[in-house]
Amino acid sequence: MTVMPADLSGIDVRAEIERLRKERNAVILAHYYQRPELQDLADFVGDSLELSRKAAETDADVIAFCGVKFMADTAKILSPNKIVVLPDINAGCSLEDSCPPEKFKAFREAHPDHIALTYINCSTEVKALSDIIVTSSSAETILQQIPADQKIIFGPDRHLGGYLSRKFNREMLLWPGVCIVHEAFSETELLKLKAQHPGAPIAAHPECPPHIVDHADYVGSTSGILQYAATIPQDTLIVATEPHIIHQMQLSIPNKTFIGAPGADGNCNCNICPYMALNTLEKLYVALRDLTPRVEIEEPLRLAAKKSLDRMLEMASGTIGKGDLGSR
Ligand code: 13P
Ligand code: SF4
């Protein structure tokens, strides 16, 4: 149930979140695509790999996950004895939606000699049907550990899969899913922006289609892009990923200018993730107060999904979660 902000008039939501965070022994985890006010009060802000690691190692009793459902599900899979709440339970993901478990199962059965290397942006059921999970910051390290003659299915993001396939000259069967947010960047508008800022490099998330990635000076995960922004000598960077990450860049690198890559209408606001945006300060307060909406997963399904996630955590143990995809 979603409580509207109007019901909360007279309540100091920030003060209440602080009180409840202590009272509940809660940790607040946030993804870089969350609204700035949620990033600012989180105990930890990170990419998908870093957030999974935090969820697995926390000693809090409650994890309040400011992100999307597959991220909160991952936290519950890795920390089953914690209460995991997601401020808005409808915060889904177009990649997860593109890959119904029964269709994925049939696809796997049609290719029995392939292993399934699967992007973390998928349902718990699809994780349970997969061999190894990857995030954008761990995909390269993990792919390099798979023998060259091993056939691979990669899903659900065909752009990340295609990018890896081109970079490593490795054939993979790609599931046809896309992120609606990264799909919406416009090559024409990006080139116009680049012409206005010829000295500014372009950093892109690998969920972007090839016509965007091909213009990028750096391709990597959200944390990788942040690290790149801090290390480049230029004072301006064009950022082709969800624009809320720019908040974190402005906090950590205040002397540089960050420009969101545009969509077809010439501005970057069409690239705000509509799912991530469902979480608000008010909904976080209600989630901590009522300990709902709560993520629950049946134990057999959780154990099946945990195997592929554990493989990711083992195989990515050498990565620091800082976007090891690196430059093209
Ligand atoms: P990373 O933060 O792991 O780069 O992934 C971004 C993402 O897919 C969130 O939707
Ligand atoms: Fe899913 Fe794309 Fe939103 Fe990430 S940005 S949660 S991949 S829809």
Automatic annotation (TrEMBL):
For the ligand ([4Fe-4S] cluster), the binding residues are: 93, 179, 273
Q: Which Gene3D superfamilies match?
A: NadA-like (3.40.50.10800)
Reaction catalysed by this enzyme: iminosuccinate + dihydroxyacetone phosphate = quinolinate + phosphate + 2 H2O + H(+)
Top-rank lineage group of the source organism: Bacteria
The places in or outside the cell where this protein is found are: Cytoplasm
Any idea which GO molecular function terms this record carries? 4 iron, 4 sulfur cluster binding; metal ion binding; quinolinate synthetase A activity
Cofactor(s) for this UniProt protein: [4Fe-4S] cluster
Q: Does the keyword Thylakoid apply?
A: no
UniProt record, GO biological process:
'de novo' NAD+ biosynthetic process from L-aspartate
> What InterPro entries does the record point to?
NadA, NadA_sf, Quinolinate_synth_type2
Q: How is the cofactor bound?
A: Binds 1 [4Fe-4S] cluster per subunit.
Q: What's one Pfam family here?
A: NadA
Does the keyword Iron belong to this entry? yes
Provide GO CC annotations from the record: cytosol
Pathway as given in its UniProt record: Cofactor biosynthesis; NAD(+) biosynthesis; quinolinate from iminoaspartate: step 1/1
Query: What does the protein in this record do?
Result: Catalyzes the condensation of iminoaspartate with dihydroxyacetone phosphate to form quinolinate.
Q: What name does UniProt use for this protein?
A: Quinolinate synthase
